[in-house]
Amino acid sequence: MPVKLCTTIAKIPNIPNIVNVGIVNEFLKYMRKNGSSEHHQNNNLKVVIAYANFLGKDNSFYDIKTKQQILEFLDTKIKTYGQDPDKKWITTWNDYLWRIKYFFRWFHNYKLPTQK
């Protein structure tokens, strides 16, 4: 059964880094303001929250400077041939990549310039 948007939003305060909590909330406001569907918002938030949890309490999105830092997270989605003989993990990996790119484009092109 799919997770509803309200359930995903309820997970935002559980992100270990308080700075990332604020950033994810701003990202949600941005998506709502631009008229994104609930399905689109939900799927993007699930990936961003998972990445924020992966970063832990000591790293914020401001600390991400190299693609290697993102690849470390994405590579957790890789499965062995025994676990996934059809290599369906590739679709998941690419979907996560696309959603993280969307988030960081917003972060660098909208969020950071408005802070100055």
Question: Can you characterise this structure?
Answer:
By secondary structure, the chain is mainly α. The protein has one domain (5-115). It has five helices and no strands. It has helices spanning 5-10, 18-33, 38-55, 67-74, 89-115. Helix 2 (18-33) runs antiparallel to helix 3 (38-55). The radius of gyration is 15 Å and the shape is globular.
Question: Can you describe this structure in just a few lines?
Answer:
The chain has about 120 residues and is mainly α. The chain has helices spanning about 5-10, 20-35, 40-55, 65-75, 90-115.
Properties at a glance:
mainly alpha; 116 residues
Total DSSP E strands = 0
Distance between the termini: 43 Å
Radius of gyration: 15 Å
How much helical structure, as a percent, in the residues?
55-70%
Low-confidence stretches: none
Shape: globular
- SSE ordering: HHHHH
Please, how many domains?
A: 1
Q: How much of the sequence is in beta strands?
A: under 5%
Note the total helix count: 5
Structural class: mainly alpha
Quick one: biggest sheet? none
Tell me, rounded to a whole number, the average pLDDT. 94
Write the layout of secondary structure elements.
Elements: H1 5-10, H2 18-33, H3 38-55, H4 67-74, H5 89-115
Helix pairs in contact: 2-3, 3-5
